């Protein structure tokens, strides 16, 4: 249903135009252009203006905003990530090593998305930006390894081979855990979420393939000629020395008192978890509209002047084999009308009972009303009653509200409908409408999303345990990577943002990426322990070596997702904010809590200095 609002100095008028359900976006653009042309011609020379709104035109504005956001995310992700690489590596070659695979991965992802016929939505619009930052983050680990080995004296080819051999398995596992987390979203029975889960999982796989194939090949080609020069140029290593020194000092502070760091992490996790458990679901359709959109402005006017943009539609169905006259129809509709208009939130109800009331107030007799209804061919009446279908429709209008306010009203309506069904046996009363359906679906969807998140957490813990062949490794990753989810949920609770379904999707993405940090730490720690290092030296060297890559990688991811904060869509801005919170908290958890947890659990090995590895070597 599309609504057209005509405005004058002292009055407004609302025109309702019915169109086909869920038209294609290109067809909808044609309809919108035609309507604008008609209204412009009709109002030419007057001081009146016309604006379009309604669910169909919401789609137009949302898709337009998403296309702009997609370009912004890709452009900002590339630009800022390249700048970070240039500043940190102080070499355009290393920036090129990260940029080329990212560009290839984005092109592949866009091509696959187009071949699948996936429509651009609030969620799928961020996939190209997600792929960009994933490639940069994965590339950083390989480039850090290559850089360390080249500066240490190895040739370019040998440095690339050994880095891929040492770091490649962690990159494989990191891509798998992220893909599993995203694939868990396909279990949600909602096309918006499941479509995004599959698209993002494909993009993650593409990002890994582009990184692990293009970067080593391009590195061999570009770095082969400058290996000796870089070995002699120690100024290129200053930033590595500074960051590694800072991380080493951090590691010593953590390992000096691991119990305190672990206790602090557990206290935060428990407190945040309690707040997260009490957070309320939240959903409102307007959150998915651009803040300054024409449709949103018109909705404000309709809410104020016409009783509301949202509606509860009460469908009344009689048995087709039971003959009814108009008097019976009016009696049943009148009861349903009164039930609907007395509900909280509902400002006005419209039905056949409205026509009956208007005519009676105008002096007509009951017989004249029945004759009018039987002979009328008016679309206005047909909107309220279908003779062929033996049904009638009662519409209750109300201003846009959050799902948390609407669901209790719908529950009360269901109780009232039971009384109506008892009073009119054989007549069906079904409450429907976009707002009621969305309110119910949002609650169910959030439950399903939480379930899929639990599945993702369980599968990733199992996968890490199997790959490292260690229950401890799975336990370590669970403790440190559930903590960011609890913290982000607690912040949403304290800020009153509520648990929107885009937030839970962000939890899934953030968890998948956050696990990557733990994987790289556990992988390097495994290498150190396999080489005979005791727990304390192995952890210290791991933090000093992996810490800089994790920090810069987290910075790239945060800046990449930071582009969503510039979006016109409130839901997408919240999505980006939640992901950023998760990434920052995950970095702190993996750099502070994870080493403390390993040191605490393996304290006996630390004290004895016995090289008993946490996980088995490959």
Description:
71% of the residues lie in helices and 7% in strands. It has 21 helices and 8 strands. The chain has helices at 25-42, 55-89, 92-116, 127-151, 156-183, 191-223, 227-232, 238-256, 258-277, 294-305, 326-341, 352-361, 366-375, 379-382, 403-423, 434-467, 471-495, 501-530, 535-562, 570-601, 603-608; strands at residues 2-7, 12-17, 49-54, 310-317, 348-350, 385-386, 391-398, 428-432. The strands form 2 sheets. Strands 4, 5, 6, 7 and 8 form a 5-stranded antiparallel β-sheet that branches. The chain has a 3-stranded antiparallel β-sheet with strand order 2-1-3, with helices on both faces. α2 (55-89) packs across α19. It starts with a strand and ends in a 10-residue tail after the last helix.
């Amino acid at each position: 249903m599309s609504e057209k609002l005509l405005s004058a100095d002292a009055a407004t008028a609302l025109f309702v135009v019915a169109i086909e359900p869920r038209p294609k976006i290109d067809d909808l653009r044609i309809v919108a252009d035609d309507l604008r042309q008609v209204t412009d011609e009709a109002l030419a020379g007057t001081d009146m203006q016309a604006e379009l709104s309604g669910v169909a035109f919401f789609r137009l504005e949302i898709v337009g905003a998403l296309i702009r956001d997609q370009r912004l995310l890709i452009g900002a992700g590339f630009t800022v990530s390249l700048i970070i690489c240039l500043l940190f590596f102080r070499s355009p070659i290393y920036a090129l090593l990260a940029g080329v695979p990212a560009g290839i991965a984005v092109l592949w992802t866009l091509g696959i998305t187009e071949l699948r016929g996936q429509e651009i939505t609030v969620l799928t619009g961020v996939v190209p930006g997600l792929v960009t930052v994933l490639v940069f983050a994965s590339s950083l680990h390989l480039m850090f390894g290559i850089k360390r080995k080249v500066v240490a004296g190895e040739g370019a080819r040998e440095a690339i081979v050994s880095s891929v051999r040492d770091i490649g398995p962690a990159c494989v596992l990191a891509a798998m855990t992220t893909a599993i987390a995203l694939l868990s979203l396909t279990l949600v029975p909602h096309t918006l979420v499941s479509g995004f889960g599959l698209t993002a999982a494909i993009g993650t796989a593409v990002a890994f393939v582009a990184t692990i194939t293009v970067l080593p090949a391009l590195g061999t080609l570009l770095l082969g000629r400058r290996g000796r020069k870089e070995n002699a140029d120690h100024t290129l290593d200053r930033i590595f020395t500074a960051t590694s020194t800072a991380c080493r000092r951090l590691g010593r502070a953590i390992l000096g008192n691991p119990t305190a760091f672990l206790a602090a992490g557990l206290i935060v996790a428990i407190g945040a978890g309690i707040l997260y458990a009490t957070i309320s679901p939240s959903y409102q359709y307007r959150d998915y509209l651009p803040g300054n959109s024409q449709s949103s402005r018109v909705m404000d006017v309709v809410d104020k002047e016409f009783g509301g943009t949202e509606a509860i539609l009460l469908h009344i169905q009689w048995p087709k084999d039971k003959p009814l006259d108009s008097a019976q129809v009016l009696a049943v509709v009148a009861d349903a009308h009164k039930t609907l208009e007395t509900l909280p939130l509902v400002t006005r109800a419209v039905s056949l009972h409205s026509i009956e009331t208007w005519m009676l107030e105008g002096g007509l007799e009951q017989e004249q009303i029945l004759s009018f209804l039987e002979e009328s061919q008016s679309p206005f009446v047909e909107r309220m009653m279908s003779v062929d279908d033996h049904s009638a429709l009662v519409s209750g209008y109300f201003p846009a509200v959050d799902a948390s306010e609407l669901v209790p009203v719908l529950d009360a309506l269901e109780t009232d409908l039971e009384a109506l069904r008892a009073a009119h046996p054989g007549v069906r009363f079904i409450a429907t409408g976009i707002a009621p359906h969305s309110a119910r679906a949002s609650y169910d969807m959030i439950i399903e999303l939480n379930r899929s998140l639990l599945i993702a957490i369980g599968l990733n813990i199992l996968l890490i345990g199997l790959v490292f062949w260690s229950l401890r490794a799975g336990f370590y990753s669970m403790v440190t990577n559930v903590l960011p989810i609890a913290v982000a949920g607690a912040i949403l609770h304290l800020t009153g943002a509520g648990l929107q379904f885009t937030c839970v999707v962000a939890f899934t993405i953030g968890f998948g990426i956050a696990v990557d940090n733990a994987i790289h730490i556990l992988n390097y720690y495994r290498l150190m322990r396999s080489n005979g290092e005791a727990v304390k030296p192995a952890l210290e060297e791991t933090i000093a070596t992996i810490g800089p890559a994790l920090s810069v990688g987290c910075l790239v991811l945060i800046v990449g997702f930071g582009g969503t904060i510039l979006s016109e869509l409130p839901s997408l801005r919240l999505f980006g904010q939640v992901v950023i919170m998760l990434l920052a908290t995950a970095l702190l958890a993996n750099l502070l809590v994870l080493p403390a947890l390993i040191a605490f659990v393996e304290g006996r090995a630390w004290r004895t200095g016995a090289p008993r590895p946490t996980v088995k070597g490959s």
